[in-house]
Automatic annotation (TrEMBL), chains A, B:
GO terms for molecular function: L-serine ammonia-lyase activity; threonine deaminase activity; threonine synthase activity. Its EC number is 4.2.3.1. This is Threonine synthase. Coiled coil: none annotated. It holds the Pfam family PALP. It comes from Nocardioides jejuensis.
Amino acid sequence: MSVVETAGQVLRDGAFGHATALSCRECGHQVALGPFYACPECFGPLEISYDFPAVTREEIEAGPANIWRYKALLPVPSDIELSPNMEPGFTRLLKAHNLGRELGIDNLWVKDDSTNPTNSFKDRVVACALSAATELHAKVFACPSTGNLANAVAAAGARAGIKTMVFIPANLEKPKQVNSAIYTDSLVAVNGNYDDVNKLASEIAGEEEGWAFVNVNVRPYYAEGSKTLGYEIAEQLGWRLPDQVVIPVASGSQLTKVHKAFQELIKLGLVEDKKYKIYGAQATGCGPVATAFKAGVDAIRPVKPDTIAKSLAIGNPADGIYVLDICRETGGAVEEVTDDEIRDGIVLLARTEGIFTETAGGTTTAVLKKLVETGQLDTSLETVFINTGHGLKTLDAIADKVGAAATIDPSYDAFKASGLI
Amino acid sequence: MSVVETAGQVLRDGAFGHATALSCRECGHQVALGPFYACPECFGPLEISYDFPAVTREEIEAGPANIWRYKALLPVPSDIELSPNMEPGFTRLLKAHNLGRELGIDNLWVKDDSTNPTNSFKDRVVACALSAATELHAKVFACPSTGNLANAVAAAGARAGIKTMVFIPANLEKPKQVNSAIYTDSLVAVNGNYDDVNKLASEIAGEEEGWAFVNVNVRPYYAEGSKTLGYEIAEQLGWRLPDQVVIPVASGSQLTKVHKAFQELIKLGLVEDKKYKIYGAQATGCGPVATAFKAGVDAIRPVKPDTIAKSLAIGNPADGIYVLDICRETGGAVEEVTDDEIRDGIVLLARTEGIFTETAGGTTTAVLKKLVETGQLDTSLETVFINTGHGLKTLDAIADKVGAAATIDPSYDAFKASGLI
């Protein structure tokens, strides 16, 4: 590769690793790698294209215990480890013995991303966005968000030492503000809802030079970070693909990227080619993709979100149509569950596997249960579901559901009399 | 090894790995491995003795990305991975470029245990206690606690499918109760303070057969889990010891175990023998070890804790005298900081390295700063400090310290007028 110029900037050799271009997912038109996200021909979404070298399992296994072990498959430079970053990923893939028994699934695994640096999968995508921002010489690293993304961007920006601005709705609860404000003195509260904040972000991205909004103008790089969930699942299973995967759907990006990751691993010969089914999980209060799936239609009708699963509350999911395609093609499904089922899902996962998930993970757990109950999931097949975030961030959702079993006086006699044993 | 009988129970071959006995740290008297914690001769604390086999770096590196990669050096069976457990450890060792620059330390690292399964180092020790409880055929897995330990025990017990009872003070704040209650329906609220809860636990341990209280009667096994912090630091530095380590001191166990781990690695030839200094970090509101260190005395005078660093608030630390010995012998120190310094420490670590720590980590960060300012730490030497837990659990401590930089209307003009850029 040689030095290329994009958006008026000189990029260093290998700035984006083995990525070769941005390709439109709709019309296939290609543009040079740069801070672009929409096709200039048809306004379709741009996605990274690569020319991968031969990559071996051994090379990957010799890498660090974080997402950079897959750096050859990401749009990042080969010296990515040298740039201060959060070093996310390579989280636990746990055999879910108890939950499997409870649900009647023979062979169940949970991929637990709640132990990422800021306790959600967002650390993966933000790490890739940060690399793109750095390579594109961005002056400001920014995002609009109400939760996990804000935490991840604020933390990664602090560690990288890049100017960071995080835009949140002004009425966001104080604890959630603290989770981001702790990392940055540039948290900006905006009078309005998340849509207003998002619109402001796009406006700033259009007006200001050198701003990298992780989920706007460097979104193609950002989104690639979710592929690492797929790579890790395959590697941690011993370099093979599972039969079924259940993934929460907000924008839908994560689900499409796990599929992309599996396909890449097959093409690179790192896993055996096999059929697998992909399932999407949504909340009934924001289930536009599930609704379209069940209706058997291709068009997704936007909804106004009304669910406790705030991190899944995207009423008009950008990648919804791709989620539909993938779930239909692979023989999976998209299912939705009510807020009560989500709360039950949170408690179920904690009580069976010792994992405290946020509402998004409660949604995925509850959808897994519903897929079994409705006969949509084959309980004899190896199944993985993804927990994307931590329950400490959404304590309110279950604060009234759990508590002490008894209150006793501090004596052995009082304990014996309590009936607890 | 052959099958041994202890406390009336038949243990399976290799139940405790290469551990050979429980040895009194005071008089050296040895007893058979079992649910014992105090020397029958002198009431001194019992500690695990081993007969280690030859262990190579390669064997360890080929192990899983959790504490079981060091299973040959822990009192656990060789098939420990087969028992459902939290799979904690192998957390990030991050180069702290920004904080190092801020404090004037050339070569600074932070070992970040906030990304453990329940977000504190307690997952390490509880995993070892759980193994001991299982091998000893305990009926109930239990602890008295107000925080991190309760979370870790409740989660590990749920995943292991063992009956679990967690005792907390009844006046513990609701969010902290939820962090444990989410995992178990056997959370017991006790009318009284932590001392009362602790006393009740000892009473139950004495009265009931088959209860494993992690920090009481299986404490020797439990405490060994902290060695893995030392092993990981050495391995992640490339199989060498740092020059200086700063470690928070509650009971003092963690500090003594990191020292023990370093000594074991030297004896096993896994790292080069070298001098290193160990420093202890306490809060001024509960600094009995720091007080004794500064006074140059051997006896530790118990205090009544009064600090925001609740997880360090042990007024009569069991391992305090060993901490004094180690810090003096290695040329380190024990230092303390005020609650205001602790709060500043939390913000400093977040703003420089993107790590949101709890009050204990704020204490360690602030002590690190103070050690530099008072000339007690050599800023030219490679230094590691340990972050033991997550700030999401102690939000209240800094909720009034951080927040939005500005509140604006949702327009580009309003943003421009805000003076933020």
